[in-house]
Amino acid sequence: MAAPCRRMASRSLLQFLSCFSRTAVGNVGFRQFSSTSVCRATLMTRSVTERARSPWTLMAAVCLQRFPVISADCTPIEQQFRQMMHQMELEKSLLSDHELRLLEDAERMSRKQADDYDSDEDGDLGDQEIVLAQDLEDSWEQKLKNFQPTPRVTADADKDLTSLERCLADSLFLLAEQQVDGAKLWLLPQTRWQDGETLRQTAERALPAGLKATFLGNAPCGVYKYKLPKAARTESTVGTKVFFFKAVLSDSGPPAAPNAPLLWAKKSELQRYLKPAYMMTVDRFILGL
Fold first, then answer.
1. Would you give the DSSP letter of residue 259?
2. In sequence order, what are the residues at sequence separation of 6 or more whose Cβ sits closer than 8 angstroms to the Cβ of residue 289?
3. pLDDT tens-digit profile of 210-226?
4. What is the pTM of this model?
């Protein structure tokens, strides 16, 4: 009776040790899967799923600006200040070389007209033809009369909204007529975002052909969001988010046939073409320099 009992005790002890070893090995094998990593993987999967199911259509637009080509006209107070500074500089300045030469020529002419004039006083200049400073001024005035400066304002070009030569003293912004929800609207050039590209790359694609620009950074300067009418909404499409990127015109290049009508407008003219809500967003980051 003692032998069977001893066998049963040893067998149960061996079974217990084997189960304990399997459990320990299993725990060691699965120790790397902590609750934190599982939660993190779940959140990442959920974020990817939510991003794939985002009901908003993403678009990028470019705010293309042409800087002034010529200096702006002075305001009345700027003109008064300029005249005052010119008068102060004239009163405190010394005589220039040309003005000193005028005085010398006047003194020489007065000596020649005197009765006791002696040509030996002028040295070797007596037998030479002397070009007076007054003669130089007359020739300069004649050249000035023949010079025709380019007009600062051209009425024909200023009226042509599609020309880059209009309003040379002001900044211009590019607008494009695009189809939005069945209606034609004037907007900043925009296009739809595609998978695998950044928003700046999307804005670069929105740039019309034939225009070269320098983009000012990789981050958008503004965003405009609008919802579709309730009749047009679906579970996968609720509205559109437009991200704006600022750019400066660097080269107009050869004219190319645009896909949509384009025009160049001043900041004060934008409200004629843009919708009020859209204009309110655009006005926050547009500077009429």
1. S
2. 67, 68, 171
3. 889 999 999 999 999 98
4. 0.65
